[in-house]
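Standup notes
- DV: blocked on the single-chain target, sequence here:
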Amino acid sequence: MLIREKLEEIEKTTLSPYACLSVNTKGRKKQEEECVIRPVFQRDRDRILHSKSFRRLRDKTQVFLIPQGDHYRTRLTHTLEVSQNARTIARALRLNEDLVEAIALGHDLGHTPFGHAGERALNRVCPIGFVHSDQSLRVVDVLEKDYKGLNLTFEVRDGIVNHQTEGKPGTLEGKIVRLSDKIAYMHHDMDDAIRAGILKDDTVPDHIGRVAGYKTADRLDYFVQDIITESSGQNDIRMSPPAAKAMHDLREWMFESVYRNPIAKSQESKAESLIESLYHYYFTQPDRLPEEYRLLMAKTNDPLEQICCDFISSMTDRYAINLYTELFVPASWLVK
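- DV (later): unblocked, structure below
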């Protein structure tokens, strides 16, 4: 028996009856020979981990643009924290950790530079719109591996495209990642806000603290434990009504205190203007696009609007700033 087959047998005997087993995958768009060692979801996880788009996440903004310090979260560290939360929940519920990890590691691959500011700018300026979860799916389906795509399984692709609040993942593992994403960003963004001096400490309003705890670590434990308790033995991933309300109220408070804070958002208008300028530049001068993107447009027959979004959303913060400087700032103005 192959190692992969032994691991698949272990899944059958140890995982919950509600888990998505590797042998029950709906498959890939293109059939391919199975790996001798790894089940399909572990293989998908590895493909994402070794992708160029995953490596670029380390230089993409989470919340704070160009922070002064080495300890602020980036899109990469956010992704790793989502994965950790999701795996904790999946293990406790005896669901498929490989599937959870693959979805978590891939969920933000299509995110723009400058976080949601970049996403808003592209969505505003591009007639066909831009949503980072859709772009993440395009990254793994089309853009990675020299435009051959990663050929991931249906279940991983479903979890990636449905990870946002309005999404409806088709697996329990996808539902875990969807909740883990919110848990991660609300808690680590608060930590970064304290580091930035926007919040004095991690104490939250009484109506939240009385339910979920007044400190970040306490709230994180509370939400994770609540999901595990409420979902145990169920063919669903759910939260208790008090926890769900506390999560909603905490998110609203974070928007009021951090995400719309003028200090945290002081540079966002500049970032949005930069993204819009780059989009207009390449849309009106498509011959200036890198050759690989012009070849992609010829190969796929995708509209120029999509190709411009592909190029710009792939950029790191640093690359976008350097490119903007090269295109729009006269050399004589540059500080030597």
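- Follow-up: The chain has a mean pLDDT of 94.
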